[in-house]
Specification:
Blueprint (H helix, E strand, L loop, with lengths): L27 H35 L2 E2 L7 E2 L3 H8 L1 H33 L5 H9 L6 H11 L6 H8 L11 H12 L4 H12 L3 H9 L4 H12 L1 H16 L3 H8 L14 H11 L3 H29 L8
Antiparallel strand pairs: 1-2
Helix pairs in contact: 2-14, 3-7, 3-8, 3-11, 3-13, 4-8, 5-7, 5-12, 11-14, 13-14
Length: about 325
């Protein structure tokens, strides 16, 4: 007569607890693969710890000190952050940066999307135009800043000459505070090719069956674009928007070389004072490195908050294939 296995019941004597399964030991091959993987990623891990993680942590320490690079840091607590709250230049730089971001990001994304839609219809010439759009992105940012002064000069710039052909009196892009940020936003389109390539890749992945079904339903080009194309590439659009927003908040090289570089002091004014420019001048020109570190942490917090808001909004607007929500 066979005996049924006894099940462990708490508080009932005579019942045995089930045996715990033994932890599976890694075989020699698995240990070798694990060690090989760790060896392959160790250069990146060491580089990240030495050149990224440690500078980030050390900059936070410096933000709590009075440090002029030449002498040892002196701990001052939250004094740098209190100074930021009272510094009118910080508010001015943040406001200029926010204005530029609100102006530049939508313009950049819309132009990139329009070019990607045109390039998607290029057929066999698609590869050539894709390269042609991307090449300007390789231009050094300092050269783009000089290009700004050449193209948008109020007297002899090419942009105003073209506007004059149509009877439009062009503004003083480089001296009028109202037009400095729009001019910089237009110049940023010089590097729109990287976003065009990303959006073009997303367009090529849209299933053609969806377009065929929309045509059968009588949808025109605009309706197909609005109801099929944009939802299907919303993930790529969101990526381009987030990355470009972060880049806009860190606007520096083009504006600095155009308005604050050597020989350009004539054009310098408060309208071109972006946040990172003010941070750079405090840290590397005035040698207020502790204060500059505090400014950097404020920028980090602002970018994190803006990105978090974008992520929350994306839950309703962005479609991901396979998403079950």
């Amino acid at each position: 007569m066979s005996t049924l296995p006894r099940t462990a019941v708490p508080g009932v004597p005579g019942t045995a607890a089930p045996a715990r399964p033994r932890a599976r030991r890694l075989t020699a091959r698995a240990r070798h693969e694990r060690n090989a993987g760790l060896a392959f990623i160790s250069p990146w891990a060491i580089g990240f710890l030495v050149f990224t993680a440690w500078p980030i942590l050390y900059s936070f320490y410096l933000s709590l000190t009075d440090y002029d690079v030449l002498n040892d840091p002196t701990f001052v607590g939250l004094e740098n952050y209190r100074r930021m709250a009272e510094d009118p230049q910080v508010r001015l730089a943040l406001w200029n940066t926010l204005q530029y971001t609100v102006l530049q990001v939508p313009l950049y994304v819309v132009v990139a999307l329009a070019l990607a839609l045109l390039l998607h219809q290029a057929g066999r010439a698609k590869g050539f135009f894709r390269t042609a759009f991307f090449v300007p992105k390789m231009t050094p940012p300092v050269a783009v800043g000089v290009l700004l002064l050449m193209l948008f000069n109020g007297q002899y710039g090419l942009v105003n000459k073209v506007l004059g052909v149509f009877g439009i009196d062009g503004p003083s892009w480089t001296t009028d505070p109202v037009w400095i940020k729009p001019g910089l936003a237009l110049v940023s389109l010089w590097g729109v090719g990287s976003a065009v390539v990303i959006l073009l890749a997303a367009l090529q992945d849209v299933p053609k069956d969806l377009y065929d079904a929309a045509r059968v339903d009588g949808a025109g080009w605009w309706r197909r674009t609005r109801t099929v194309t944009l939802p299907m590439i919303s993930g790529a659009l969101f990526f381009v928007t987030v990355v470009n927003t972060i880049a806009a908040f860190q606007m520096f090289t083009e504006a600095y070389s155009a308005f604050f570089g050597a020989g350009n002091s004539t054009y310098s004014n408060d309208a071109a004072l972006f946040y990172v420019i003010y941070l750079f001048r405090e840290g590397f020109e005035e040698l207020h490195m502790g204060y500059a570190s505090a400014l950097a942490w404020l920028l980090f917090v602002v970018i994190m908050l803006v990105t978090a808001v974008q992520l929350l909004v994306s839950r309703r607007l962005v479609y991901y294939e396979g998403d079950q929500r």
